[in-house]
Amino acid sequence: MKTMVIGIGALALAALSTAAIAQRDPAYAAAREAKQVGEQPDGYLGVVSGGASVQALVRDINIKRKAAYTASAQASGATVEQFAFTSGCNLVAKVGRGEMYKTPSGQWKENTGTPELDPRCK
């Protein structure tokens, strides 16, 4: 099990390139800066506030993330859910100061230092 977690973690970092690509999108950057979107522990982006355009942006990014997670999970022998969760741990851990993330208890919070991670991330 430990080997699988390490393997999934390494591949999860590779899948983060999908998140990095999204960050170059000016609409994503604007929504993130406006605190309309945030990272979730499940590996997907969430809508904190905003209308249809923000929801469409998040849906598009999450479709791309799921495709990357699916491909990487198949390559590692993990489930998509395991892979997405490991990616979520990495994404939430990298949330910048002032950006939004969802806590393990399900509350949206602005990162003021070190984000709260799901205890299973460790």
**Distinct helical segment count:** 4
Number of strands: 4
Spans of 5+ residues with little confidence (pLDDT < 50)? Answer: 1-7
**Shape type:** globular
Hey, roughly how much beta strand do the residues contain? Answer: 5-15%
Structural class: alpha+beta
The helix content is: 55-70%
Report on the structure:
The chain is an alpha+beta fold and 122 residues long. The chain has helices spanning 2-23, 26-33, 52-76, 80-93, and strands at residues 37-39, 45-47, 100-102, 108-110. The protein is globular, with a radius of gyration of 14 Å. Mean pLDDT is 86; it is low at 1-7.
Describe the protein's topology.
Layout (H helix, E strand, L loop, with lengths): L1 H22 L2 H8 L3 E3 L5 E3 L4 H25 L3 H14 L6 E3 L5 E3 L12
Parallel strand pairs: 1-3
Antiparallel strand pairs: 1-2, 3-4
